[in-house]
Amino acid sequence: MPRRETYPVDIAGVHRELPLFQIKPGLRIAVLNILGDTELVEAAADALAEKIRQTIPEFDLLVTAEAKSIPLIHALAVRLRKPYVVLRKVYKPYMGEAIAAETLSITTGKPQTLYLDEKDRDLVRGKRVVLVDDVISTGSTLQGMRLVMDKAGAQVVGEAAIFTEGERAKWNNILALGHLPLFTDDGTQA
Known about the structure:
- The chain has one domain: Rossmann fold (3-Layer(aba) Sandwich).
- Helix 1 (about 40-55) crosses helix 2.
- By secondary structure, the chain is of the alpha/beta class.
- The protein has four helices and eleven strands, in the order βββαβαβββαβαβββ.
- It is globular, with a radius of gyration of 17 Å.
């Protein structure tokens, strides 16, 4: 099996080689998968928590969408001493009267729905929230989280991620530890 091309990154003092995967003809992305990478999650949470403290001094709650960013939001919640909510991607009957919004994921290429569990509705209503993701690329998951928070009566006061990706100027308002380019077949980085 040929060795997959990688893109080197340093995240809060931790070095990783991110594998490049084609997501559509002529376009590849560097994939960050923090699941199981305790060293990286802990370092990223330390650095991101400090950025959040410095930039968003008053908020009540952290919110993310499942699944890869769950270890990050947990580690952030511990450091920031705030509760967190995970928006689910599959509705289960025990979630009761959930609030939902549809989004399109770059990694799946398909529409997906985000659900706020009924048990979390009161926790979110009227609160100032910070949205958290591992990588913000197209912004569709972020937009889905915003829609759910709006429907739930919460105010989004900040957005944070380990990396932004793609058009850098599009993400000036995101608290991030770094930026990932997109890779084209002709070898250029977009």
